[in-house]
Specification:
The protein has helices at about 1-25, 50-65, 85-100, 110-125, 155-170, 185-195, 215-225, 235-250, 265-270, 275, 300-310, 320-340, 345-350; strands at about 25, 35-40, 75-80, 105, 130, 175-180, 205-210, 230-235, 255-260, 280-285, 340, 380-385, 390-400. With about 400 residues, it is α/β, with parallel strands linked by helices. It has two domains: about 35-155 and about 295-380, Rossmann fold; about 155-285, Response regulator (Rossmann fold), CATH 3.40.50.2300.
């Protein structure tokens, strides 16, 4: 009798435990017992298609995770559409992802103008809009856009570093600046001027370009004719390569500062000519493949093994592959932290709870941190100079404003 009663009680306990376990599984659209839908847009075509490898890398990383059993037993369903870096197209694709595909969240939508075009709609829908592939400072404005979060060092913080560097090391230099006539460009020039502080009057010429422009030759000629000592090149990869090559063709050799999104040796410096890029200055936060300093680094070894298996044929020197790898690594960590609560509110909560998270390819001393009032995951960089072969870091790790 007692044994029967004990068995009955045990069975009830198991049943209660099982029910409680099921009750703890919370889902919003896009999540289930078996999958997690993640939405993305990327310029697989158009003027900024050099960034398309970011999307390919992320897809490959998620495939690796799925091959390993997924995230807490769920496979990642990564839905990535081409928006050609066209804001209207981005809005169209984002609507499709949310309303038709019913994704749980948006992840790593690339571009400042593209994200800006869709952000109010995303906010109104209360969809997590995480790890945007843009340095746009606005994407960390948690008060105005509480569902959005950046990833890389934000533009104003990064370009402020260049301003401070020039104010300290070239206090009397005449400066010329080239930047895009869009939200990214405005962010860049705002931060740069802030960093210059009382040396902002050293800027003697500013030129802008449209991302659809076939060339920027006329802007470069205008900057050169003013006789500047420093050229601050705040352009995206295609135009950065054009600017570096054109400067060499003109025999123009100012101190050349290049924005971080265009530091890729493969996509920018090689097309421009490595000899033409020698002594260019930038900032970086990523270990560079091929630098002997990282040959025995565990994180670099993991990255190399990943590319060899999941992106065969891709060039590991391409900085954008490293970027996509780190971004995907962060997204997976956030999803792992969600456990069985895959509601949009909890996804955002976990994204806001990153504490000293280390990524395989971050420079030593740089870690990922967020909070409900800090939507800028990476806020440190180090200055680098190109030696004709690779980027060489110099100086300390710098915190962004």
């Amino acid at each position: 009798m007692w044994e029967a009663r004990s068995a009955l009680l045990a069975a009830v306990a198991v049943a209660i435990s099982t029910c409680a376990g099921h009750a703890e599984k919370l889902y919003d659209p896009g999540a289930s017992d078996t999958s997690i839908k993640i939405g993305n847009t990327m310029p697989y075509s158009g003027p900024n298609s050099a960034f398309a490898v970011v999307g390919r890398t992320q897809a490959a990383y998620f495939k690796m995770i799925n091959d390993q059993g997924g995230v807490n037993g769920r496979k990642i369903d990564y839905i990535s559409y081409d928006d050609s870096y066209s804001p209207p197209k981005t809005v169209e694709q984002v609507r499709k992802l949310i309303e038709s595909d019913e994704v749980l969240l948006l992840y790593s939508v690339l571009g400042t103008p593209t994200n800006l075009a869709a952000i109010k709609y995303i906010t109104a829908k209360k969809i997590p809009h995480l790890l945007t592939a843009s340095g746009g400072t606005v994407f960390g404005d948690y008060k105005q856009f509480p569902w959005s979060m950046g990833f890389q060092p934000h533009s104003q913080g990064e370009t402020s570093v260049y301003g401070k560097y020039l104010a300290e090391n070239y206090p009397t230099a005449r400066i010329g600046v080239l930047y895009s006539a869009d939200g990214l460009g405005r962010d860049n020039i705002t931060g740069f001027k802030k960093g210059l502080g009382d040396k902002v009057g050293n800027i003697v010429v500013e030129q802008t370009y449209e991302v659809t422009d076939p060339t920027i030759d006329s802007q470069l000629v205008k900057i050169r004719t003013t006789g500047v000592d420093v050229f601050v090149n705040l352009t995206t990869p295609k135009f950065a390569a054009i600017a570096i090559r054109k400067a060499a063709e003109m025999g123009w050799k100012p101190v050349h500062v290049l924005v971080g999104i265009s530091l890729s040796i493969e996509n920018v410096l090689k097309p421009a000519g490595l000899e033409n890029a020698k002594d260019i200055i930038t900032s970086n936060y990523v270990k560079e493949f091929g630098d002997p300093s990282w040959d025995d680094d565990p994180g670099m070894k993991k990255f190399v093994a990943f590319v060899d298996k999941y992106l065969p044929g891709e060039n590991k020197h391409n900085w954008n592959i490293g970027y996509g790898y780190m971004s995907a690594q962060t997204m997976v960590h956030i999803l792992q932290q969600c456990g069985d609560d895959l509601t949009r509110a909890n996804v955002l909560k976990q994204a806001e709870s990153l504490k000293d998270f280390e990524l395989d390819l971050l420079l030593p001393g740089i870690k990922v941190n967020t909070s409900p009032t800090d939507h800028y995951p990476i806020q440190q960089v180090r200055m680098h100079r190109f030696d004709g072969t690779r980027w060489q870091g110099f100086g300390p790790i710098l915190a962004l404003d």
